[in-house]
Amino acid sequence: MRKTNWLSGITAVALVGALLAGCSGKKDNEPSASPTTSAPAATASASASAPAAGTPVDGGTLTISTFSDIVSINPIYVSDTASGDIQNLAFANLYDYDRNANVTVEPWSLAAELPKVSEDGKTYTVKLKSTAKWSDGQPVTADDLIYFINTVKNPDAGSPGISSFDKVDKVNKIDDQTVDIVLNQVYAPFLNVLVTGIVPQHVLKDVPLKDLQKNAYGIDPAKTVTNGPWKWTEWKQGQYITLEADPNYWGEKKPHIAKIIYKQYADQNTEVQAIIKGDTQMTEAIPVTQIDAVKKHENLNVILAPGPQYEYLNFNFKDENFPDKYSPFKGQKTRQAIAYALNRQGMVDKVLKGTGRLMNSPFLPGSWADPGDEAVNYNFDPEKAKQLLAEDGWKAGSDGILAKDGHKFSFELQYNAGNSRREQVAQVIQQNLKDVGIEVKPKAIDFSTWIDQNVTPGKFPALLLSWSLNNPDPDAESIFSSKYFPPNGQNGGWYKNEKLDALWVKGQQTVDKDERAAVYKEIGKEISIDLPYVFMYQYGLPQVVDGTTLHWAEEDKPESSLAYGYLFHVINWWSDKK
């Protein structure tokens, strides 16, 4: 599904994630971005291929740490990286990505071959493998794919993936393994959209769509029928998640690892201590400040390179999300002032230790959609910020805090608890904005609760999060278009710009890559002027693995440039731990 996810832990978004859903995100939860970027690669303590050793063995256990719990692993609703991790282990995708982000068919993919596309670009013929089965023994059929697409595109379901599938006019069943997906327009990103998990029609067909999101499916392991290499067997909320290899898994390639455990810790620093002590074998992201400490341990390998995620400061434009029923972010000059007031390069240098790269639009630096100098760059300039705030009508009160029309410029900045990087960045934002007369109140919230109650429904004043970009296509309509306010989209800040709304559609309907790039340059310029977000920086996730107990062949090593690349080809990995 074409989703951008909020990153749960990133290590800042994380964010994803993705910023996703995180980013969610997968939001670890979630638009653009070619996975091949020109961003400077961060140093790594060891090659990603270091854990390769010996011949694969079956039956081991892989223990992975996290500081964020899941929300739901139902593929219709996943929009954060914590949930996305488990979905990717328990569900097979229709199609998958190779290391270079090309859509492909793997032995573990549901599809039997790449889709056939009609000459007009509007019909995609998808053929499923006849051998694919659900964990309850039922076959995976065309009915499952049809149900999935029709559900996601239906506003009653409230799926974050609606913007990807509402371009589908109809899905025709050709036979039990074949469907024709007919679009109502040319939609250039659609091949990437088909890199998605699906759900069992025979399990969910009688659930009313308005009740589907809160249904036990995706929340209760005992009621969640899956079709991937591992079955979800246990969830102890706030503590751990367990998956076990499905003895009846249909794929010709079977998983070597018998059990995967996700252990939840209080924060990233605690995760680092756990892997140093040997309590875990892998953590998907540690604070960059901990890399040197980890590198002192010969058994631990750090994998760090720029990834498909960026962090952002999200403004909310809906008055009811503020205590005084007044959003202070509606003035364009006010938003630009905030961008000038933030020392983004200082954050990269001091918090990220130079491993990030500044961004001015939602397109990753060096990607084919990167607008480059067309996007406005906001240098750190507090005096310029003060000037713009004054021009927009803000005046200092007796306490030094700006006010306008009887409303004090004070807002709560939400971020996910346990994310050490984000905590530091929130403190920098607080001080930077205090220096220009704006009061910021940082608030850390449990990730899964935050995504469910604040981020997804768009009920927040402002937030610090990141997006994990789930596929390499630059389309970000679901995040920035006014067509996709919650619950039928991911524009949780309630941002509206009719010019951008039209440009996103133009980009989707343009097939020629160079012509599409020109559209995204125009988007980059407009969005960097109007600023629904302050785009902060691209960053990488420092993945740590215990190379003495966790192994893979060179061709199966993690791939930092991909969403969920830290689990790339995990079906082929093996573990010495029992």
Automatic annotation (TrEMBL):
MF-aspect GO terms: peptide transmembrane transporter activity
Region Disordered, residue ranges: 26-55
Signal peptide (residue range): 1-21
GO terms for cellular component: ATP-binding cassette (ABC) transporter complex; periplasmic space
Positions of the Solute-binding protein family domain: 110-476
SUPFAM superfamilies assigned to the protein according to its UniProt record, in alphabetical order: Periplasmic binding protein-like II
PROSITE patterns: PROKAR_LIPOPROTEIN (PS51257)
Keyword terms: Signal, Transport
Pfam families: SBP_bac_5
Keyword Secreted belongs to the record: no
GO process annotations (BP): peptide transport
Residue ranges, compositional bias (Low complexity): 31-53
Record-stated family: Belongs to the bacterial solute-binding protein 5 family.
Listed name of the protein: Peptide ABC transporter substrate-binding protein
Organism ancestry: Bacteria, Bacillati, Bacillota, Bacilli, Bacillales
